[in-house]
Amino acid sequence: MSSVRKIAEQSGVSITTVSRALNNDPSVNEHTRKHIITIANRVGYAATMGKRITTQIAFAYAGEQTISHPFDAAVFEGILRGVNECRFDVVILNLQRDKHPEETYTQFFMRKGVRGVILRIMEETRRICHAIVEEGFPLFVISERFESDKINCIDCDSKPDSIRAVEHLIALGHRRIAFGMHNIPDRDHMDRYEGYCEALNRHELPYDESLVFRQPYTLAGGSTVMKMIACMSDRPTAIYFADPMMGVGAIKQAREMGVQIPQDLSVIGFDDTDVRFSVHPTMTAVCQDASILGFEAASHLTQSLTHNTHQCLQKTIPTFFEINDSTGAPPLIQNGHSAHWGNLSFNGHSDVAETFQSYRARQQTSLQEEAT
Amino acid sequence: MSSVRKIAEQSGVSITTVSRALNNDPSVNEHTRKHIITIANRVGYAATMGKRITTQIAFAYAGEQTISHPFDAAVFEGILRGVNECRFDVVILNLQRDKHPEETYTQFFMRKGVRGVILRIMEETRRICHAIVEEGFPLFVISERFESDKINCIDCDSKPDSIRAVEHLIALGHRRIAFGMHNIPDRDHMDRYEGYCEALNRHELPYDESLVFRQPYTLAGGSTVMKMIACMSDRPTAIYFADPMMGVGAIKQAREMGVQIPQDLSVIGFDDTDVRFSVHPTMTAVCQDASILGFEAASHLTQSLTHNTHQCLQKTIPTFFEINDSTGAPPLIQNGHSAHWGNLSFNGHSDVAETFQSYRARQQTSLQEEAT
DNA sequence: CTGAAAGCGCTTACAG
DNA sequence: CTGAAAGCGCTTACAG
């Protein structure tokens, strides 16, 4: 068991100074403080409650909490399974809300009483991981990759299957292929974007920025993309969405507008769980079981803490590409213009349903109104 | 600040005994132990880390963790928002996994370092709530109602809108109306079941147990119900699902079988968030925003802990009924037999898609095979 | 900026 | 079954 006493011995200062360093007392020398925190992490100093050391790890967000997204929900569910073997508990932390700017990450996590952290970051918060590892606090990063071989991380490489997915569209005869992604980039969406570009490149198809749609990763985001495509004069015949909600929202919006999938437009989605089975037609998708990411992270982190081992785990798990019913041959192109969309009028009974023609007419009217 | 010292004073024993009582030392007298735990809760004794008292509440499950279900995910998201004002953190606990049978609930939660608990229970675990309140530990129960006015609880009463929903079907002309619910009953599903029964009763329609389907609340569960209905000789013309996933799964399965919704079958679902917009036709549904339940619970509990107030909150929020596109007039009934289903053959392009007729033929063949 | 000493909150042999 | 006392882990005036 590592107490302040042990840290004091190892670092050659008094327990008073150790206590002060861990509590970020401003009087303690910057250099000493850093040294003590390093030692504390080396000897595996753990927050205690009474005499018991805590058995908590954190699932921490570096930015906004996105737990309601299917990816995060699946990861979290995996984490809850992953901590069971070593009987750890999970606390949700928000760095943005609670971390004092003057304290180090180690100080923050110790103050919160957690022994390790599973971190969910965005592109612009990658530096945080380096800082935490530098301090030596037990860390596992979800859904990112690093050059450094000291950062525990697990992610899913969706690039190969993204290439495969776009090549599937090309093989079906598609030439104008769009891409839909989240408007805040992260590693996962970048992988899929790179796969999309790579596939175009391999088959000497031009990259067209106007075919890359960046929207919120929600049903509404996918719906918006579909509406934007509807208004294009030179529409794509297929689209690959890097996100499950966007794909589902787009397929739904298509049906609302009387656009048939895959006859008028082929759609490939991404699936973190099993939403591809909840829509009709069943969505062709690049798939992963995101809960595995959470499970592996939580399992490795809690094992390390329990047995005081320190080997680094860097793992990339593959996705799989599943061809279902939302992809098919492209519509015939006449005189170089986009095929007529929505020619099969919507056959539901709903009052709100409208054919694509009337939708587009209304849309263009409002665009004209906006312009004047 | 309440220390063991204060509890000792108030209960007239030494701090030694208090410590023993809180740690469930078997030597301490049963009666004394109970008394001390009551006092501890009365003075608001709180677990400390070092000298700091913790700012954690638990989101605890009495049974299996169901965080991946949209209802729980939404509740949890609400909890995370609800703790922000008082800057509490949330830890997920599992009573089944970690509570020792000899320790009281208070002892368990103190050992875990949480100051209060938001509890998610099932019908058969209601007694736990009474035990916790008896001990005096800060508790908030999600999605249940109690006769006792001492238990903080919040739920959503979906019975009135369930009646309204079924009456909507009756008004459209439906007479054989089915009901789909989770095979493990809880308060919410019981409300909806009671609403279903009440509506039938009001309009003097017979209750038919063969029209009540109890299945897992998953896409697969809803799909199963749809397949079961398909094989009935005296099919219902409408169904009300008490669960979002079941409704979505059923609508999807219907399309796979070539059954048109609402022409062949009207479907009403239940929606905890916004899944009704992810399917086509947009699902007519009894709706709630389940995240409000979590938000209110977390907000009230953390306020109470922060300001040391003790007034009990019992709240029931209403649902709303939203008529969308999955309900319509029943199909014509000929000679007292069910209308022909799947007469409009499936018009997707998929290889796996099959008309209802071929599906049913196959199904009946396999049933016959099973019988021999 | 650092440490010896006092002290808080808790637990635990030891005594009864 | 209970308590006085020793002791652990930590923090904090006080002194330098």
Ordered list of secondary-structure elements with their pairings:
Two copies of one chain form a homodimer.
Chain A: H1 4-11, H2 15-22, H3 30-42, E1 48-49, E2 52-53, E3 56-61, H4 70-82, E4 89-94, H5 95-98, H6 105-112, E5 116-120, H7 126-135, E6 139-142, E7 153-157, H8 159-171, E8 177-182, H9 187-202, E9 212-215, H10 219-230, E10 238-241, H11 244-256, E11 266-271, E12 284-287, H12 291-307, E13 314-318, E14 320-322, H13 356-371
Parallel strand pairs in A: 3-4, 3-5, 5-6, 6-7, 7-13, 8-9, 8-10, 10-11, 11-12
Antiparallel strand pairs in A: 1-2, 12-14
Chain A binds a DNA duplex (16 and 16 nucleotides) through α2.
A few lines on this structure:
Chain A is α/β, with parallel strands linked by helices and 372 residues long.
